[in-house]
Amino acid sequence: MIRLRQIAFAATDLAAAEQALTSALGVRLCHRDPGVGVFGLRNALYPVGDQFLEIVAPVQPDTTAGRLLAKRGGDCGYMALFQTTALGPVEERLSEAGIRVVLDAAGDGIRGLHLHPKDVPGAIVSIDAADEPAEWPWAGPDWRRHIDTTTVNAIAGMDVTVADPAAAAATWGHVLGLSPADDALAVDDGIVRFVPTRPGDPRQGITAVDLATTDAALAGTSRDLLGVTLRFTPASDTA
């Protein structure tokens, strides 16, 4: 199993970013993790079906998120969290490739490996395994009570903009145990695409997120929010 379980955005103003996200998607706050305080951050988590969107904002100087916000010139995509069944094979692949783990995060019923963005280009990538695969302890104990699928019900994929899409796809593929095709990786619930930087467009990293929408009027549309493009695709009957 390799699922794209959570995508995080970095924002300069957490309250404004939350208002923008909830207004656009109708999602409901499920958790604020006090543990991110050790990184000089505050956060907010929102379920999209059984996947999650997160916003982090720096509250101290010289944070990783703050440096990225300065580099990107504003709100932007920040982190992608993938879920697998066991971390042992992942750790073997990381060791083989010399990819550094910057944080071995342990929670109650979950563990995640945050990888060095200089080794895995395009975003901070975390590979996580939960004791109960249907759960996601990073989102708090009662996230299911906050699910609202009147607008969106799943994360269907994302674009990662990089200078060398083929190399990035190969590296991410090695980490995730997947074989790239056409500079893309097929995960269990969607597609991760690697696209080239474009002249005149300063955006890099996570630049687009595909969301399955239950609103027929939104299907096939897109909008820019929090430094990325949200693309709305029709939700399947079984999503």
How can the largest sheet be summarized? 7 strands, mixed
| Total number of beta strands | 13
User: What is the CATH superfamily of the largest domain?
Assistant: 2,3-Dihydroxybiphenyl 1,2-Dioxygenase, domain 1
How many individual helices?
4
Helix/strand/pairing category:
alpha/beta
Q: What's the number of structural domains?
A: 2
Helix content: 10-25%
Distance between the termini: 17 Å
Q: According to CATH, what is the topology of the largest domain?
A: 2,3-Dihydroxybiphenyl 1,2-Dioxygenase, domain 1
Using only CA atoms, what is the Rg?
17 Å
CATH architecture descriptor text of the largest domain: Roll
Describe the protein's topology:
Elements: E1 3-10, H1 14-25, E2 41-48, E3 51-58, H2 64-72, E4 76-83, H3 88-97, E5 101-107, E6 110-115, E7 124-130, E8 152-162, H4 165-176, E9 184-187, E10 190-196, E11 205-213, E12 222-225, E13 228-234
Parallel strand pairs: 1-3, 4-7, 8-10, 11-13
Antiparallel strand pairs: 1-4, 2-3, 5-6, 6-7, 8-11, 9-10, 12-13
Can you walk through the features of this model?
- It is a single chain.
- The longest helix has 12 residues.
- It is globular and about 45 Å long.
- The mean pLDDT is 96.
- The protein contains four helices and 13 strands.
- It is of the alpha/beta class and 239 residues long.
Short structural description:
This protein has helices at about 15-25, 65-70, 90-95, 165-175, and strands at about 5-10, 40-50, 50-60, 75-85, 100-105, 110-115, 125-130, 150-160, 185, 190-195, 205-215, 220-225, 230-235.
